[in-house]
Amino acid sequence: MIFQALGLLAPLLLAPAAPLSPSASTAATPFDPPSAAAQQRNRLALISERSDLIVLNDGKEIECRVTLDGKDIVLARVGKSRKTKEYKRSDIKEIYTIERSLREFFARYDVERKNGVEALADLAKFCEERSLNGEAQNLWVRIILEDPENEQAWTKLGGVYNKRRGWRLKVRGRFYTLEQLKERAADWKNAMFFPTAHFVVKSDLDPVAVLDLCFNLERSYLAYYSILTQSVDLQQFDFIPEVHIPKDEKNYSRPRIQGDNAWFDPGQNTLFVDGSKQNIAREAVFHLTQLLVDNSFRRPNAGGIGQIAPWAERAISDAFAGAVKVEDGIAEWEFGEPLMDYFEYHAKHDKPLTIKQLLGAGRMEFRNPPAAELFRAQAYTLIHFLAYEDKGKYQDGLTAYLQSSINGKFAATHLAKALGVKKLDEIEERWNEYVKEIAGV
User: Measured between alpha carbons, how far is 370 from 121 in angstroms, rounded to an integer?
Assistant: First the structure.
């Protein structure tokens, strides 16, 4: 069940993936960002329909983009038309996807990342074999930052060498040394522009910080799908969102709500984070989860006519934001402990919202202070109640409701039907009691 998984994020047991043919890499390096026109085209780009591979029992190989790697069925977009086809798991001998390769990569990287440049080079070659070209670039850049004379890494990045000036990289017609590249990338107009498996990152922060951020974005993606797809048929999305993180507040795109240190713009499909602020991991992950929800539930290329109610979007985003832990540069998610600030706020409020008010709220109610704080708190406590009350009594209903949201059925009446009650008022009193019990009020 979806929220049984919130108690423990166990690694998925996946068969080792065989090498895939590397996709064509871009000529540009992270130090050579694309033009504004190219960036605009990139916002419309989709993950390649040949990024994954299905091998059937009869030996037939199908290059495709797997969008649902389910227990019984596999959905994949095939050919230039990107038509979705369904395959029974029993008919499949082997399956190789970007996501499986990423999980295998991180399992190795977390063990070998401090074993020197040779270990990083081996991991970079692994990424190239699995079509993880952005992750391979990440590792080659890490290597030259650690070993500025590493011939293999410079060559992979397109560097040239001469005895008088050493290794340099050509960017926009000029040659730059490593120190010059770092100085150039520290200016927002020349910021590093880094592709990952599912995102594009623009940042002028310290290069090592940017490299870690790129990996943690992918960890976020994997954690999100690992949790939700344990019980909901949520398809992988094909669009490639951008993440912009300037180090100077003056380059931070103005948020819709004054004071926000991160925000997601669905029109541009871009997450903006103020890199000048400290200790904003929870806030940034909240808005990153909004990006993931928007792309996976609502966008048509994610497998349907989906929609998600504002209260549910808010609750899922808060659950992921509250569970993130970053240690030694690695992001992990530890679910299970409730966010007590939300429970206490709801429990102590002299006039809490009715369940009908909460479920009928639009997105603005969750944004506009001062009422927004109560809407946010009660959205989180409601989904926690539906997940954990009476040993998960409502878990199946919550799962059914989220599944129906993917198919465009997300109204309060759909939640009541999924929970098996005639009116949601039937659970409202017990919900408020549950909140007070958790809050100790």
Answer: 52
Indicate if the alpha-carbon torsion angle 34, 37, 43, 48 is positive or negative. Answer: negative
The mean pLDDT of the chain is: 88
DSSP state, residue 193: E
pLDDT in tens, 150-190: 999 999 999 999 999 999 999 988 999 999 999 999 999 99
- Distance CA(156)–CA(29), nearest Å, equals 10
Give the pLDDT confidence score for residue 404 in this predicted structure.
Answer: 87
Q: Is 332 helix (H, G, I), strand (E, B) or coil?
A: strand
Residue type at position 77 = R
Q: What does DSSP say about strands 61-69 and 73-78: parallel, antiparallel, or unpaired?
A: antiparallel
Q: In this predicted structure, which of 2-11, 54-63, 106-115, 360-369 has the lowest mean pLDDT?
A: 2-11
- Over residues 425-434, mean pLDDT: 94
Return the minimum-mean-pLDDT range out of 19-28, 59-68, 233-242. 19-28
- Unique residue bearing structure tokens 């004379």: 149
User: CA-CA distance, 431 to 355, in Å (whole number)?
Assistant: 9
What residue spans of 27-177 are helical by DSSP H? 36-42, 98-112, 117-129, 133-146, 151-156
Helix, strand, coil percentages in the chain from 3-state DSSP, rounded to 5 = 45, 15, 35
Tokens describing residue 205? 């922060």
pLDDT by residue (tens digit) across 249-297? 999 999 988 889 999 999 899 999 999 999 999 999 999 999 999 998 8
Pairing of strands 174-176, 166-171: antiparallel
Q: How far apart are CA 65 and CA 52, in angstroms?
A: 5
Whether 359 and 386 have beta carbons less than 8 Å apart is answered as: no
Task: Tell me the residue length of the chain.
Answer: 441
How open is the CA angle 273-279-281, to the nearest 5 degrees?
55
CB 138 within 8 A of CB 194: yes
Best CA proximity match to 131, nearest among 55, 30, 67, 53 = 53
Mean pLDDT in residue range 434-441: 95
Q: Is 254 helix (H, G, I), strand (E, B) or coil?
A: coil
Sign of CA dihedral 282, 288, 293, 298: positive
61 - beta bridge partners?
55
SS3 label, residue 310: helix
